Amino acid sequence: MALVNLKNICKTYDNKKLVIDNLSFTVDNNDFFVLIGASGSGKTTILNLIAGLEDINSGEIYINDVLSNNIEPKDRDIAMVFQNYALYPHMTVFENLAFALRNKKENKKEIKNRVVEIAEKLRIDKLLDRKPAQLSGGQKQRVAIGRAIVRNPKIFLMDEPLSNLDVVLRNQLRKELKQLHKDFNATIIYVTHDQIEALSLATKIMVLKDGHIEQIGTPIEIFENPQNQFVAQFLGTPKMNIINNLNINYKNNKKFINIFNQEIELPNIISKPQTINLGIRPENFIVCNKKSDIGTRVSIKYAELIGSEYIIYSKMEYKNNIYQIVFNI
Ligand code: ADP
Description:
- This protein is an alpha+beta fold.
- The strands form five sheets. Strands 6-7-8-3-9-10 form a six-stranded mixed beta sheet, sandwiched between helices. Strands 2-1-4-5 form a four-stranded antiparallel beta sheet, covered by helices on one side. It has a three-stranded antiparallel beta sheet with strand order 12-13-14, with no helix packed on it.
- The protein folds into two domains: about 1-225, P-loop containing nucleotide triphosphate hydrolases (Rossmann fold); about 235-329, no CATH class.
- It has eight helices and 18 strands.
- The protein has helices at about 45-50, 95-105, 110-120, 135-150, 165-185, 195-200, 220-225, 230-235; strands at about 1-10, 20-30, 30-35, 60-65, 65, 80, 155-160, 190, 205-210, 210-215, 240-245, 250, 255-260, 260-265, 275-280, 300-305, 310-320, 320-329.
């Protein structure tokens, strides 16, 4: 079921350039929907439009099939988690978690049970008497997530919630977020510029560029079948090699290119262009034995050890052009 449905949304901040340009997409119930794109591509703006914190210029936002353009943020049944935690500094962890429930005048005993239940799940149950200043970054972010969960909202909007944490904590909290998504059957719309977070957390990824959608799909679809060169190079580290303008030879209705001393048949999915750009992921190269007559020589510029493998930065000469080739061994 589509829980959030954006139709032809446009947004400008200064009545000049559209930062969101005729954007349409749907988020289904239980999706972990990740928006990824470079800084300035419009990710936070989209979250703010869904939350009602910014007005849209044109288009429609439906939440649970209800046209929500004019519904106040507080009435949209949405909880937000930000990069900078946004906790009340003068309140204890317990009070921070209980705040929204107390505002709703819920029964004291039920509030306590709910807060303790969530705190145990997030492993902050031993910290309930502390104030935010007495917590580490990871603990603060757990409280912020708990404060969102406690209200049992229909939708969670998360804006780079892990980006202020160090690598170890980020990896740990990433796993916990995935578990929380399962445990609470939550619907999460999540902004990041970190491709590992996008690939590992998402049920669906939307790749954005300059306020436009480049592709929406599952992580595997996006990684294995990118729809264009931007998406192909955006996800994957090191990024995909592109060898531009290779001539296509047509023989018996089949298409071939010559490269690396091989003739490679192309899949029959493109029309009749004269040239193609060939994309090869660094991990798909293999080092061949010296006597092999396939393959090509490259000159190595430098190598980076990244644990179990090296990333090799090399140069290849081909038909008087020089290509930079990066591969893993
Ligand atoms: P992202 O989250 O992908 O980094 P944003 O949604 O924050 O991108 O910004 C998209 C574009 O809108 C950027 O060009 C940014 O400078 C502009 N922008 C964002 N917020 C405002 C604002 N309050 N006033 C004017 N321009 C803004």
